[in-house]
Amino acid sequence: MSENEQKPRSEIADLVPGQLKKTIVMVGMMGAGKTAVGRALAARLNVPFLDSDHEIESAANLTIPEIFARDGEPFFRQKERQVINRLLEKERGVLSTGGGAFLSEENRRIITSGGVSVWLQADLQVLWNRVKHRDTRPLLRTENPYATLRSLYDARVPLYALADLQVVSDGRASIETMVDRVLQSLRARPDVLEWK
Ligand SMILES: Nc1ncnc2c1ncn2[C@@H]1O[C@H](COP(=O)(O)OP(=O)(O)OP(=O)(O)O)[C@@H](O)[C@H]1O
Ligand SMILES: O=C(O)C1=C[C@@H](O)[C@@H](O)[C@H](O)C1
Ligand SMILES: [Mg+2]
């Protein structure tokens, strides 16, 4: 490993994250790693982890594809808004949202007032490599899922860019390295996370 690759890790290793003052809200495309990185970040900070997709599924006792098929996307979006509202009112922690959550102006307002948003920014090829083998994302159940992902990506990137913080997921960084990167970006935000 080169010296440059090691540097961010050693910088963060000197710092011990202290008290979390605001909920960290992971946003970004499907496959960006919101669930995987959010869960690992919560474990590192020893704070609760919540995932809005998971909360919706367990409340309905149905999978997301089943909810889309039975009740339609507008119903899912309504549940998503309610769940995000509720989770942000709960104790502080890490909240991973669904890929479409940050597109709604109302959700952006709720997230920005109740927490700090972190966009996990991955390019289209990285996202495709992570989602292509799985059938759990109803929006990609089209004739050409890659083209669908590309058009969602093009339409959504300008909205994700409104997040408070951006962290690059380049396809080589492990989940733990992504946690380091998120913590690194939070060094600029002592109103969110104290450092010892
Ligand atoms: N940095 C990473 N290194 C290796 N694998 C990763 C990384 N980030 C995510 N993954 C893997 O990519 C897949 C998709 O990640 P994940 O489910 O966390 O995405 P998501 O952003 O939560 O997507 P969705 O919006 O559909 O919920 C998972 O199998 C996850 O383990
Ligand atoms: O990008 C999206 O719109 C979605 C992403 C997933 O997290 C789920 O919330 C659902 O599959 C929709
Ligand atoms: Mg997820």
Small-molecule binders here are: adenosine-5'-triphosphate, (3R,4S,5R)-3,4,5-trihydroxycyclohex-1-ENE-1-carboxylic acid, magnesium ion
- Spatial order of strands in the largest sheet: 3-4-2-5-6
- Please state the structural category: alpha/beta
The arrangement of helices and strands along the chain is HEEHEHHHEHEHHEHE
Kindly, what is the distance between the CA atoms of the first and last residues, rounded to a whole number of angstroms? 28 Å
CATH domain class name: Alpha Beta
Describe the structure.
- This protein has 196 residues and is of the alpha/beta class.
- The chain has one domain: 3-Layer(aba) Sandwich (Rossmann fold), CATH 3.40.50.300.
- Helices cover 53% and strands 15% of the residues.
- It is built from 9 helices and 7 strands; from the N terminus they run αββαβαααβαβααβαβ.
- The chain has a 5-stranded parallel β-sheet, sandwiched between helices. A two-stranded antiparallel sheet has the order 1-7.
- α1 (3-13) crosses α9.
- The two termini are 28 Å apart.
- The model has no long low-confidence stretch (mean pLDDT 92).
- (3R,4S,5R)-3,4,5-trihydroxycyclohex-1-ENE-1-carboxylic acid is lined by residues 30, 53, 64, 98-100, 137-139.
What are the key terms here?
single chain; 196 residues; alpha/beta; Rossmann fold; 5-stranded parallel beta sheet; two-stranded antiparallel ribbon; 9 helices; binds adenosine-5'-triphosphate; binds (3R,4S,5R)-3,4,5-trihydroxycyclohex-1-ENE-1-carboxylic acid; binds magnesium ion; magnesium ion binding
